[in-house]
Amino acid sequence: MGKFWAYLFCSGICLLSNLPQAAFAQAPLVSRHVTVHAAVQSRTLQVGPKKEFSTIAAAAAIAVSGDTVEIEAGDYIADVATWRLDHLTLRGVGGPVKLIAGGKSAEGKAIWVISGKDVLVENIHFSGAKVADRNGAGIRFEHGQLTVRNCVFLNNENGILTSNNHEAELVIENSEFGYGGGSHNLYVGKIKKLSVTGSYFHHASVKHLLKSRAAESYIYYNRLTDETGGTASYELDLPNGGLAYVVGNIIQQSSTTQNPTIISYGEEGYIWTRNELYLSYNTIVDDLPGGGRFLYRKSGADKLMATNNLLLGYGPFEGSLRANGGAMMSRIPGGKELGLQDLAVVQIQNNITTGWESFVSASQYDYRINDSASGQLKVIDLGAESGMPLVPQSQYIHPRGVKRLPASPLVPGAVQP
User: Fold this and answer.
1) Biggest distance spanned by C-alpha atoms of the chain
2) In the chain, what percentage of residues exceed pLDDT 90?
């Protein structure tokens, strides 16, 4: 670019960098992204067979902070890239944009490696990521703030794999993760915050559908169903505790699971200042013959609140067993089992176990309550905890997305009649 334009661009970046952080601190990630882009006056780089750039890698090589990269519909094989810039939008346009690893990886890590403040990725499919250390990912997210929207991750060793950067934040909206190749469909390290809404996790291989070590995990209105042929271990694993809200999700364990526990909390020890688990209005399904365990949590957490969950199957969940009696269990060193008395605050209410006959078609993962059962299932009043809603305001819609509920929930579980 000419000296004059270079001067204007650099001046704009310097001006933006001097803005006080408080200007963005209260806005959600996506809103911050839009605000910053307006200030930067970004360029748009176009990728496609007849566009300015024929490959994604070529656009990545010339991009600068603040740019928007639009990728035309099509298959991009072995076209991997690293993005170490701020305030980027990386967007598929005009139809499906499929990034197929084809044996290649960026930095030996992923199809895309992303490090930057306020990066948005949307409308892109990632598949086939495999690397030497078996941690290949569709996206390797290393630091900054990343929003992933309307994306699909299939047949990767990991869909998304993050670093352990304590300041990083990841937002996932309306996306799909499936057929993990021996690792986790989503593996979030020890980052500051994870938020997942309207997303579909399915068919893991041996490991977990969703694993988060984040200090804060907000899991709202998703479908985590291992389904026929899935061999996942946990469906939801929060191994280091943290502040976790799990609200309005469909969570199902397959009959071929590698582990009888569906949700695990704190198994590897608590490392965060706040270790509180809130489970409300989830439909939790155990298809393991003979039953498994709906929830496992290690002793030492600060709080456990589980209310208005709907349970299908046989397994321990305090006060709501249809068959095999038993309490929600905790483990301490030496393998000794404790009850619930070791927690500072425990509220476990109205978690109702019902049968397959209560649903429209549980065998087809349709967990709508039928008319005959809906009149028998009641909810108890809930408010908010630490400012976060425990009563669903929306509901997952398949295959990806959410819809607003017209009124307060009438029945326990994630699916309203």
Assistant:
1) 76
2) 69
